[in-house]
Task: structure prediction
Amino acid sequence: MRIVELFKRSGLVAGLIAAGLAQAQDIKLGYNGDLSASPSAQSGHAAVVGMQAAIDDINAAGGVLGKKLALVVRDDTSAPPKSIQNMSDLIDNEKVAVVFGPTNSGNAMAWKHIPNQKKVPVIGNVGSGTDITKPMSAGADNYMFRVSMVDRDQVAALMAYTKKNPAAKVVGLMAETTGYGQGGLKDMQEIAELQGIKPAAVERFAVADTDMTSQLAKMKAANVDTVVVWAQGTPIAQLIRSMEKINYFPATLTSWAADNVTFYDAAGKTLAEKPLFMRTVSESKSPVQQKLYDRIGSQLKAPSAFSFALHGYDSVQLAAAAIKQAGSTDGAAIRAALEDLKAPVAGVLKTYNKPFSKTQREALTAKDFVWIKWKDGKLAPYNDAVIGGLAAADFKQ
Result:
């Protein structure tokens, strides 16, 4: 009896070992970003939902290089030290082939040296900070790529709108004091100078501030009629509510974070309709986008987060295409493949035809963005005479 039990147990152990080996042979992809802490956490969550949907589709079609893809997720709680720790864990312990994320731009700036040193590609799909995808030094191999908005492209568009708008006579700039906000402020100041715009006032506020009336009073005293704002969703809402407190509503152009439901919930329906901003998709979805939304929409924290799910889905498709072309999970080989993808990659936002190169790291550029305003609780495409009159030469950066 003991011999029989021994064989049974041996068979069980062998099965577990075989299953473990099979799992070990999966190609691991990692996500490192905020899923719980900051106003942007729902965006990170949506990206993960989109990534998993792409992985499911790729695995159902046979995987990559004869192996399944597997997603390893780490929540960095918006904290740079935790994000740095996660990056080392994903690369050194989990042995991921590609890392995705982060949610918050400042965290990418804290750890981007790690994947560059260890030669593991990163494809950002939420954080939009301009400097994230810049090489560590001139001429160095660059392991940072992105499928998301880019702050500088957005700023160039907002400043072009401001310059062309005859009603914008006195301009003010405002930003939160995080790395995200201050990176955007740097872009705003530089591009304002390129456009010949001289801000009459520049003000900052903390991400947790709920009353910005003192900063707005300075804007009002400077006769500012148009304010350009760089912040996350909730502080933008608090800014708009502060405008209501002093009955001062300059034309307001903001970062894409105004698409976040945290902005809408904090501002309320009426005030939410004040800002003009940009994003990669409106609620007027293409058939392929609608099909994906019908499949994953119930998993999202809010319908407005769907754009990040699209970024997540497409970023995985590009990574899979690069691994397949490289014929390897070697980081340097994947980077080289991403820089020279031989075949178009069909995504849900668009078809990517050589989206990256040795110097180009942004798969989405200003021509892929749409102008948006909240209208009746939905993210509606927006157009006016100023937008209609903008040309490529106006987007100086």
